[in-house]
Amino acid sequence: MTDSPTVSGSLRNRLVLTLIGGAAILAILLFLAVRSYAARVAQQGQDNILSASVASILDAAAIRDGQLEIDIPYAAFSMLTTPSDDRVFYAIYQDGAFISGYDELQVDEPVAQANWTFQSTEMRGESIRQVNAGRTLVGLGKQTQIEVALGQTQDALSQTMDQISRNAAFLGIGFFLLAACLSFWVASTTIGQLNKLTTSVTRRGPQDLSPFRKPVPREMAPLVTSLNSLMGRLDQSLGQSEDFIAEAAHRVRTPLATVRSYAEATLHRVERKENREALRAMVRAIDESSRAAGQLLDHAMITFRADHLEREDIDLVVLTKDLVQRLTPIAEMRELTLSLTGARAVPYSGDPILLQNAVRNMIDNALKYAPVDSTVVIDVRADPNVQIKVSDAGPGFPSEEIDMLTRRFERGQNATGTIGSGLGLTIAQDVATAHGGTLELSNKPEGGACVILSL
Amino acid sequence: MRYLIAVILLLLPLCASADDWEERFVFNEGAEGPQLRVISSTDTLLFAPFIEGFVAENPLISVEYLVTGSADIDRRVRANPSAFDVIISSAMDLQLKLANDGFALRLEDVEVPPWTQWHHSLFAFTSEPATIVINRSAFEGRALPETRQDLIEAMRERPDMFRGKIGTYDVRESGLGYLFATQDSRVSETYWRLMEIMGGLRVKLYCCSGDMISDLVEGKIHVAYNVLGSYASAQAEGQDALEVILPSDFQTTMMRTVMVSSATQSVQAAQQFLRYLVSDRPNESTTQSPLPLLVAEDTVSEQETIGLNPALLTFLDSLKRKKFISAWENAVIQ
Amino acid sequence: MNLTSTCHGREDFLRLMKFLLVEDNLDLANAITSRMRLDGHVVDHAAKLDDATAYAEVEEYDLILLDIMLPDGDGREFLARHRASDLDTPVIVLTARSQVSDRIGSLDMGADDYVTKPFDHAELEARCRAVLRRKSGNAKSRIEVGGIVFDPVAGHFSVGGRDISLRNRELRLMELFINAPGQVFSKQKLADRLFTYDDNVSDNAIEVYVGRLRKHLEASDLKITTLRGLGYRLDHDG
Asked: Which of B80, B205, C12, C45 has the fewest CB atoms within 10 Å, i.e. is most exposed?
């Protein structure tokens, strides 16, 4: 009945993907930024220690008795101890000539007093960080240039870097997960607004075409506006349909009534049996079609009212009493007695028109099947729950009909193609459902049908 | 077993090879597997229990054990790294420099406390303090010296008694001697005063602990300074005359270290041997060993022990060494 | 044939019932009128609200049958006006609309009852009877003849001062006979009047009702005579 709309992508997925994608990019940037910053800091730390070490070596250089002496302090190398036991290389040059340490360690350019250089290079197959430092010594009119190169492998540094990378990765992942959760949350709350609108539109009955009035976010206002205008137009056209149906009913029923009346009048004058039978059949056909039309229209009306229930405070006993009074002539025609029993007053808040219709259908049904000279009992009570029970002394429901009717109720389907007794009870069932109640069909053990409308 | 080894050891000088080794011995000779060449500064007598234990567990591996001085080990390894699989020495500084210079194989998965190894390539397995060993007869009726200061005073009191009767390492010859000397000098000026006194009393200089203790046992000297207690105890077994003194002012504790040569051909066997020494030692062998094994959990010894760190390179610097040797010579050789 | 009334002017009460039928559909109006007249009632027909108002002002009706949808206005407006004008003539609404919407609406406007088109004439009659029973006092429809007192509207029946409770169809049968004393009713005619078209009636059923009524009338001067091949007739012995 409802065509599924053509679906192209999901707003929610798009929102989530965009947000998560953004979060992923941010997380990666965060990771890279933290790592590169940490790398700079860590490298700075190693450079600082190398500087301190080389400074202490240079400080120990002195010219004594015209001889160069470099009494390397124990602490100079001691301070280069790292958790990863990094290897240490050094070289001391005097005026460009190697005098001590590892001669593979070169000082590429002469180093000025205050201008130390750091470089990352290779030594014996390992990458090292190297500091080059120089100092000019003056002694006994002699001037000499000391250059010290100090190198250290970077195991500890890379270990620290690994650790930092790991932590930065955790940070990035954590940030990402948090952002992902947030984006799901944001997406679902955003879509939630749409869902709320959808739900409240879906929950409406098919006839509820009143405008949607609950506050919605600004972005959804145009949607709601056009939805409301659509519903307005629909409501108008439905209203027209209703008028049309009523008019149509009137147009059909009046001639039917004419035909029926004529047929009836004629029947009184006709004596021949076959003519009489033909007239009777005519009358029955007219009754059948008018009842079908009537019940279909009733059902439509009931459905319409049930969808926007107008509750009033009423007394079910008064309501039922009116009804009994009104149906008494019909009952009497069939030599039946209507008996109202139960409580004296049962206050209830419901739609009186719907309830009256439901009960009328229940009693109609009983009248139809009750045997001559029997009593149809209508019982109204508030204990244990508010209920109206109509029972007759007829043959009761055929068991398969109970099942069928019950099933039809369960399916909550319309009465399409179920003209006759079933539709009256379907109407009663619809009314019960609209009031949050149930309609129960059963056969009394002593015989006869029993219909209970529980509210 | 030990008796057998002792007997063999007595015969050892006879079979010393032409290659100039102080001692050379092959354990588990004729085994099918690889032969490990272990170069060590530790006398065979002291080290044999370890190798015995190792070959007992690994019968396929034979071990050629070569003994020489610690300075000589450094020279030989640098000259021909592929000639040895395992390098054991008491000169921590030289060992560290070898490792620093890339002669040691990095072994990542040997589980030991950080302070007993360096760079996963140099591993300590003993903890041995430097001691003063005296011949008790020289201190008849007198209090035994407990500190270096006590020793200085004892020598000042009776210079004639000790003249020519004091022995210590020749730091120019012995790697371990140089290590002890430099570490002593770092800790206290007392070292230089002691050296000056000893120099004044014409101290006898030795290349190795063994000779020094032999002379002590034989009564040629009364006092040996900075001798390894382990050697003294081993050789003074049954010699009541000798007293091993741990100076109470400060101790210099050395760790014997082992490394696998980076040029080794038998990585697997060499690793196994190293593991056996530093982590897998069976208790039986521990009790038999005359060497005081490292107790990894002992935090006190961590404090007193010479640290395995790049600072050990300091005194190996040629300028520094030249300066130290000249200061030492000034003090000792008068 | 010699039926006399002990209470003057009451003997043909229902025959003199006066209806105003307000219905714009002439065919339907004709059909209803002819059917009503068949029962001996007087029916005036108005096709427009204006006419209906005019009739109602001039004549006094026992009952007004009112169609809701009329060319010149809503029947309910007429109803409202009618109620406002102090006339308490009962009104039965004829409606073609949904039962749900119109019935209630017209009741609220003051209609006494309603019938949905197309309607069973018997139902219309039953409703008229019920409305009249509610609206008028007992005296109006009381008939005393041949030792019986009969009020068809109130449903009261007594023979020789003794109350007898009549069933609905017995009551209707009695009413038919007493309104047309001396007239012969065929079984067919009686069945047409007593039963709806849904009921499957056998000739036997009529005999049963006639038999019952005869039994009730035993103590009175009235009796039901069987005319073989023709039907039944109410006779007055006295």
From this structure: B80
Nearest CA to B230 among B194, B198, B195, B256? B256
State the CATH architecture for A26-162.
2-Layer Sandwich (3.30)
- Residue B72 burial (CB count, 10 A): 20
Backbone angles phi, psi at C224, to 5 degrees: -105, 120
C-alpha distance from C134 to closest chain A C-alpha (Å): 11
Instruction: Tell me which residue of A385, A363, A380, A391 sits closest to A449, measured CA to CA.
Output: A391
**Domain spans of chain C?**
14-135, 139-236
* Residue whose tokens read 């129960």: A440
Token output for A451: 């219909």
pLDDT tens-digit profile of C177-231? 887 778 888 887 788 777 776 666 676 888 888 888 888 888 888 888 888 888 8
User: Per-residue pLDDT tens for B258-269?
Assistant: 999 999 999 999
Strand order in the sheet with A449-454: A337-342, A375-381, A387-391, A449-454, A438-443
Q: Give the domain ranges of chain B.
A: 2-127+255-297, 129-252+316-332
Which chain C residues are closer than 8 Å to A356 by Cβ?
104
CATH classification (class only), B2-127+255-297: alpha beta
CATH number of B129-252+316-332: 3.40.190.10
Whether the predicted pLDDT of B157 surpasses 80: yes
pLDDT-derived band at B280, boundaries 50, 70, 90: confident
Instruction: Kindly report the CATH class assigned to A204-308.
Output: mainly alpha
Residue A238: pLDDT over 70 = no
For residue B110, what is the DSSP state? -
Task: State the residue for tokens 């049962």.
Answer: A346
Identity of the amino acid at A74: Y
Residue A1: the pLDDT is 43
Tokens matching residue A24: 């992923």
From 1.50.40.10, 3.40.50.150, 3.40.50.720, 1.10.10.10, which CATH number describes the C139-236 domain? 1.10.10.10
Q: Which residues lie closer than 8 Å to A285 by C-beta, 6 or more apart?
A: none
CA angle A267, A272, A277 (to 5 degrees): 60
User: CB of B100 within 8 Å of any CB in chain A?
Assistant: yes
How many Å apart are CA C224 and CA C170, to the nearest integer?
Answer: 13
- Side chain identity, residue A297: L
At residue B332, the pLDDT reads: 93
Q: Do you know the residue count of chain A?
A: 455
Residue A17 to residues A6, A20, A180, B8: CA-CA distances in angstroms? 21, 5, 9, 81
Whether this model's pTM surpasses 0.80: no
Which chain A residues are within 8 Å of B309, Cβ to Cβ?
Answer: 77-78, 80-81, 85
Mean pLDDT rounded to a whole number for chain A = 83
CB of A330 within 8 Å of any CB in chain C?
yes
Higher-scoring residue by pLDDT: B322, A433: B322
Cα angle value B129/B130/B135 (rounded, 5°): 120
Cβ-nearest to B309 among A69, A78, A89: A78
Q: Do B102 and A124 touch (CB under 8 A)?
A: yes
Write out the two tokens for B253.
């504790």
In the predicted model, is pLDDT for residue A268 greater than 90?
no
**What CATH number has the domain spanning C14-135?**
3.40.50.2300
Q: Residue C74: which residues within 8 A CB-CB, separation 6 or more?
A: C68
Interface predicted TM-score (ipTM): 0.87
Residue boundaries of the structural domains of chain A: 26-162, 204-308, 310-454
Q: What pLDDT shows up at residue A416?
A: 42
Asked whether the beta carbons of residue A329 and residue C123 sit closer than 8 angstroms, the reply is yes
A302 touching chain C per CB within 8 A: yes
User: What does the DSSP assignment read for B80-99?
Assistant: -GGG-SEEEES-HHHHHHHH
Mean pLDDT of chain B: 87
